């Protein structure tokens, strides 16, 4: 177990790529303050599992969210950084390329209790010997991981300079309610052209794209201990009811029931 308020310490203490085993795990606890691991990459793929608190993973062209009892899969060779909420309890799982058929792109996975416990067990002995009981459990883990349901909890951030400017503004102020028409004027284009550009670059309408960011922020804040009232205010909703309606429509359950189901 590594316990630190600075995730950068992990890079000095734990080097995943030299490990010969097809999968190794590391348990991480963050004490009192939010922590961030700067941009880096591994030859091995990385699964980031959150059991308490949440993790936000920045990868090229997207921000991925890891709510409790979920994991983000980051294929090997992908530059990424991790931001962890206060008092988070997370696991890093490093997987040798080709060891199990996981997607070739980033995604969020819903983690079953069996997979969760296998990861927790594996983290107790990162340097497990060959032909040991732990190695056999690691093989079961590699068989079970591809069965995890994919949930696309991410906010696309394209390279297009105009959309990037818009995304940066929304990230800095998620409560910003600037309309498509107002943004179009700022970017010196027509409202119709901007709407088409957002759809082409992100695969989402402007409203759905902004809602994805709201979901990412909401999940992170709620997992970190914020109240529904506080999150609704942070996101600029006129009422708590309006925020709960958006959350339920997107994720199927209101916030309290959603997190109860995760636990």
Automatic annotation (TrEMBL):
<keyword id="KW-0238">DNA-binding</keyword>
<keyword id="KW-0805">Transcription regulation</keyword>
<keyword id="KW-0804">Transcription</keyword>
<dbReference type="Pfam" id="PF02311">
    <property type="entry name" value="AraC_binding"/>
</dbReference>
<dbReference type="InterPro" id="IPR018060">
    <property type="entry name" value="HTH_AraC"/>
</dbReference>
<dbReference type="InterPro" id="IPR003313">
    <property type="entry name" value="AraC-bd"/>
</dbReference>
<dbReference type="InterPro" id="IPR009057">
    <property type="entry name" value="Homeodomain-like_sf"/>
</dbReference>
<protein>
    <submittedName>
        <fullName>Helix-turn-helix transcriptional regulator</fullName>
    </submittedName>
</protein>
<dbReference type="Pfam" id="PF12833">
    <property type="entry name" value="HTH_18"/>
</dbReference>
<feature type="domain" description="HTH araC/xylS-type">
    <location>
        <begin position="164"/>
        <end position="261"/>
    </location>
</feature>
<dbReference type="InterPro" id="IPR011051">
    <property type="entry name" value="RmlC_Cupin_sf"/>
</dbReference>
<dbReference type="InterPro" id="IPR014710">
    <property type="entry name" value="RmlC-like_jellyroll"/>
</dbReference>
């Amino acid at each position: 177990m590594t316990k630190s308020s600075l995730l950068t310490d992990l890079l000095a203490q734990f080097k995943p790529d030299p490990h010969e085993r097809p999968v190794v795990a590391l348990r991480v606890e963050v004490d009192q303050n939010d922590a961030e691991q700067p941009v880096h990459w591994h030859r091995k793929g990385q699964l980031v599992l959150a059991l308490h608190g949440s993790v936000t993973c920045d990868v090229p062209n997207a921000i991925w969210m890891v709510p409790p009892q979920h994991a983000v899969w980051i294929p090997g060779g992908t530059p990424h950084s991790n931001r962890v909420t206060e008092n988070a309890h997370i696991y890093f799982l490093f997987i040798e390329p080709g060891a199990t058929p996981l997607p070739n792109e980033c995604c969020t996975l819903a983690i079953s209790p069996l997979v969760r416990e296998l990861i927790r067990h594996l983290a107790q002995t990162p340097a497990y010997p060959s032909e040991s009981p732990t190695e056999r459990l690691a093989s079961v883990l590699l068989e079970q991981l591809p069965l995890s349901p994919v949930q696309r909890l991410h906010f696309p951030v394209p390279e297009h300079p105009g959309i990037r400017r818009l995304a940066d503004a929304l990230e800095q102020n998620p409560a910003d309610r600037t309309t498509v028409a107002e943004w179009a004027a700022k970017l010196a284009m027509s409202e119709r052209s901007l709407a088409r550009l957002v759809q082409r670059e992100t695969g989402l309408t402007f409203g759905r794209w902004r809602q994805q960011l709201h979901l990412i922020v909401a999940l992170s804040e709620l997992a970190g201990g914020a109240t529904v009232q506080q999150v609704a205010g942070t996101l600029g909703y006129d009422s708590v009811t309006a925020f709960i309606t958006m959350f339920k429509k997107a994720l199927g359950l209101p916030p309290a029931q959603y997190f109860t189901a995760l636990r």
